[in-house]
């Protein structure tokens, strides 16, 4: 007597294997510690006065996204020493838009 699996049973078994593989590829298994990603503005010179930008402030915060999972974001801000304009990373702003709404108007993106 041979035991044959029905189509439904085969699909169910395949689905469980795919789920197991997917679970093992989860960021929490791939990265035991949250990876640290650095974000800095693209500009190297001020848009207004063309003066070279200097590092103004660095801050860290935990960020979680659906596509990349959780990570530690290092936000590197640059500032023009002439007109005091502050520049930030557009990429980090796109990932965490609400965090930037609290900053003053002089901040440029």
Explain the overall architecture.
By secondary structure, the protein is an alpha/beta fold. The protein contains 3 helices and 5 strands; from the N terminus they run H-H-E-E-E-E-H-E. It has helices at about 5-25, 25-30, 90-95, and strands at about 35-40, 55-65, 70-80, 85, 105-109. The N and C termini lie far apart (about 70 Å). The mean pLDDT is about 80.
What is this entry, summarized?
The protein is 26% helix and 30% strand. With 109 residues, it is an alpha/beta fold. The relative contact order is 0.16.
> N-to-C SSE series?
HHEEEEHE
Distance between the termini: 72 Å
Low-confidence stretches: none
Approximate helicity band: 25-40%
Q: Layout of helices and strands, plus pairs?
A:
Elements: H1 7-24, H2 27-30, E1 36-39, E2 53-65, E3 69-80, E4 86-87, H3 90-95, E5 107-108
Parallel strand pairs: 1-3, 4-5
Antiparallel strand pairs: 2-3, 3-4
Could you list some keywords that capture this structure?
alpha/beta, 5-stranded mixed β-sheet, 5 strands
């Amino acid at each position: 007597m041979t035991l044959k699996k029905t189509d439904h049973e085969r699909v169910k078994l395949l689905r469980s294997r795919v789920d197991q593989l997917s679970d093992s590829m989860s960021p929490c298994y791939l990265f035991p510690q949250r990876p640290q990603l650095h974000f800095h503005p693209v500009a190297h010179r001020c848009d207004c006065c063309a003066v070279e930008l200097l590092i103004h402030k660095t801050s860290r915060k935990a960020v979680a996204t659906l596509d990349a999972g959780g990570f530690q974001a290092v936000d590197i801000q640059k500032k023009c020493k002439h007109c005091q304009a502050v520049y930030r990373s557009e990429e980090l702003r796109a990932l965490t838009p609400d965090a930037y709404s609290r900053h003053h108007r002089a901040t440029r993106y």
